[in-house]
Amino acid sequence: xxxxxxxxxxxxxxxxxxxxxxxxxxxxxxxxxxxxxxxxxxxxxxxxxxxxxxxxxxxxxxxxxxxxxxxxxxxxxxxxxxxxxxxxxxxxxxxxxxxxxxxxxxxxxxxxxxxxxxxxxxxxxxxxxxxxxxxxxxxxxxxxxxxxxxxxxxxxxxxxxxxxxxxxxxxxxxxxxxxxxxxxxxxxxxxxxxxxxxxxxxxxxxxxxxxxxxxxxxxxxxxxxxxxxxxxxxxxxxxxxxxxxxxxxxxxxxxxxxxxxxxxxxxxxxxxxxxxxxxxxxxxxxxxxxxxxxxxxxxxxxxxxxxxxxxxxxxxxxxxxxxxxxxxxxxxxxxxxxxxxxxxxxxxxxxxxxxxxxxxxxxxxxxxxxxxxxxxxxxxxxxxxxxxxxxxxxxxxxxxxxxxxxxxxxxxxxxxxxxxxxxxxxxxxxxxxxxxxxxxxxxxxxxx
Length: 448
Ligand code: FES
Ligand SMILES: [Fe+2]
Known about the structure:
CATH class of the largest domain: Alpha Beta
Largest sheet: 10 strands, antiparallel
Shape: globular
Distance between the termini: 31 Å
Structural class: alpha+beta
Number of domains: 2
Bound molecules: FE2/S2 (inorganic) cluster, fe (ii) ion
Radius of gyration: 23 Å
Number of helices: 12
Number of strands: 23
Helix content: 25-40%
Strand content: 15-25%
CATH superfamily of the largest domain: Naphthalene 1,2-dioxygenase Alpha Subunit, Chain A, domain 1
């Protein structure tokens, strides 16, 4: 596919009218490169939480597309984000994924940078460079913009990107507030592993509450404490899942909500009251300051927010998962697990047990999901299979968008609106629109 034809076809890849997606968007190499450039190279990308780098010299590495970024706590308490590549010949200046250091020394020829990325040491500079190397011109490159919202650190490689709070908008800020309102810190140990899937399958699944009744039948049966899947919490009515009695949004009557927003951020899933269970303590929502921060819609949100493009805020846990694109067929999944700063060791252990059994490489839900994403990715490469459009037509054109409290939301029992909105927004990003035009093109309509 040539670059020209790719651009020409962008509008045809996703149909809001038919609820159809062209499968080539999960397979094409040129589109993948364009994603790295026009989506990951421009969006505000989540780097880490400030609690991970409390002391001067603490650092944590996160990719933005194919750039590896070191987020570093400075001696004055500030934060800088530096590209992990030496200004001499490009070697990585830091081989650890996180840690504490006084300086970054490149292992190739020994150039050394301070915590702010200034070049402070060059071996034999006088005799080899004869006074002609100006150290002040060869510091580590920085991200274009860096900012933190309630302790969540983001960066963009685009100097023209709008400020972080504007990019997040009301929906993105609320997504973070759903964790930040709980006075949390990240527990040590970020889980990192690879799934053989296109990153977008992992992202759109965060809004998919249709699959749980079938995909997560075995995990649900364990959670419900039975071996045959029986539970008291409602019943699946899909023919394949008849009589299984595993909870699933929509088909079991759980109340759902979908919030869609500019730039492609979205939140979808059952409301907080609908998912109340003995496994997840939701009492924090009753605190007055939390209710004030989250607002009348936010306190109801129990589902899954995704900050475009790839930061899933899992409100139970709570956790943040990054779906990092490696190739059209490979995605690195990261899990950051949070705990209340005041939690007792027992509460932390319980939280870790819950999160490790749900997500991550040992998590039941993740293994069940990952199989589907990998198989869906495999099938987009068959020339015949590739011609079958993906369907996101559930509740199509029936989703009345309610605009209030600075948010656009759809109330409903079962729908695929958030997934469709994700792909519509993906097309707009891939067109390379300017920021104002991008915002307009991703502003929710009245009906979806
Ligand atoms: S590449 Fe880093 S010192 Fe030469
Ligand atoms: Fe799932």
